[in-house]
Write a structure and sequence with these properties.
The chain is mostly helical and 97 residues long. Helix content is 69%, strand content 0%. It has five helices and no strands. Helix 3 packs antiparallel against helix 4. It is globular.
């Protein structure tokens, strides 16, 4: 959120903050995290529900949403030079037991 502010770019967090000036930055971030959690649950439910849409198509959307959620869950993993490296190291080299 700060990076976008410093660069003069708009984001949904910045717009929401302007529309709700009584909310703190932390409150805005928590609100959007709750929206993400809620919508991820809806997407998972839709994927599990029987429909005419092929399962592979539904899973493609779900997996893309999960991937984007991973990239942006803690920081801006897309532009961070180290954030994704830690995830890759954890997946490839860290024991699960």
């Amino acid at each position: 959120m700060q990076r976008e502010n410093n660069q003069g770019k708009l984001s949904s967090l910045n717009i929401y903050s302007e529309l709700h000036p009584n909310m703190t930055e932390t409150g805005v971030v928590e609100y959007f995290k709750s929206l993400i959690d809620y919508n991820m649950a809806l997407l998972l439910e839709a994927c599990l529900r029987e429909s005419t849409l092929p399962t592979q198509c539904k899973l493609l959307h779900l997996n893309m949403a999960k991937t984007l959620n991973l990239f942006y869950s803690r920081t801006d993993g897309y532009t961070s030079k180290t954030e994704m490296q830690q995830h890759v190291d954890d997946i490839l080299f860290r024991s699960i037991i």
